[in-house]
Design goal:
heterodimer, A: mainly beta, 6-stranded mixed β-sheet, B: 116 residues, 4-stranded antiparallel β-sheet, 0% helix
Chain lengths: 113, 116
């Protein structure tokens, strides 16, 4: 069965600092990978996705993620964090043949001004 | 497009009462998902439909929960009778047809349910 691990429950960074959120997945074949963001009181919004091709994918709001098959990882990065990035971030994986997503437990990001 | 629309946004009810949550998916989408989010258990998939047919309801916690999708533009999640442990935020999501792109889910704003 597919699974996703987000090892960091909480992360605090200073505004302007770089950010990396970790995500490891378990899946037998090439996965479809996603990062979603949830602002307080809101639903989940898609940040970016990886299906195939270039392993470095760009998303909205200046985020990017890199797929590393050898490490079973899909870490999310941003070079300079803004206070408005404070939110909860979810990594998710899906099989190619179906559209059921398996989500990680989420990482809560706090941004210090 | 208005996105996935859920109603009500907030629901407060007393234990034992019936609760019905509603969802209107994005037009043209053929898959619909119901999730429950709590602090303790995170985001859990309850059930999902494809072309109005329930495909996987293994996440439905017990018989008190039921979901229907009578047509492509409407779904309900019902809890009868409700219990305090059902208090959570319930999300509906929809996705378009096809592989690849069909794996992207678009979420509604959620319904915050409080059972007293």
């Amino acid at each position: 069965a597919q699974s996703v691990t987000q090892p960091d429950i909480h992360i605090t960074v200073s505004e302007g600092a770089s950010l990396e959120l970790r995500c490891n997945y378990s899946y037998g074949a090439t996965p479809y990978l996603f990062w979603y963001v949830q602002s307080p009181g809101q639903g989940l919004q898609l940040l970016l996705k990886y299906f195939s091709g270039d392993t470095l994918v760009q998303g909205i709001k200046g985020f990017e993620a890199e797929f590393k098959r050898s490490q079973s990882s899909f870490n999310l990065r941003k070079p300079s964090v803004h206070w408005s990035d404070a939110a909860e971030y979810f990594c998710a994986v899906s099989s190619g043949g179906g559209n059921k997503l398996t989500f990680g437990t989420g990482t809560q990001l706090k941004v210090e001004l | 497009d208005a996105g996935v629309i859920q109603s009500p946004r907030h629901e407060v009810t007393e234990m034992g009462q019936e609760v019905t949550l509603r969802c209107k998916p994005i037009s043209g989408h053929n898959s619909l998902f119901w999730y429950r989010q709590t602090m303790m258990r995170g985001l859990e998939l309850l059930i999902y439909f494809n072309n109005n047919v329930p495909i996987d309801d293994s996440g439905m916690p017990e018989d008190r929960f039921s979901a229907k999708m009578p047509n492509a533009s409407f779904s309900t999640l019902k809890i009868q009778p409700s219990e305090p442990r059902d208090s959570a935020v319930y999300f509906c999501a929809s996705s378009p047809p096809g592989q690849g792109w069909g794996n992207i889910q678009y979420f509604g704003a959620g319904t915050r349910l409080s059972v007293l």
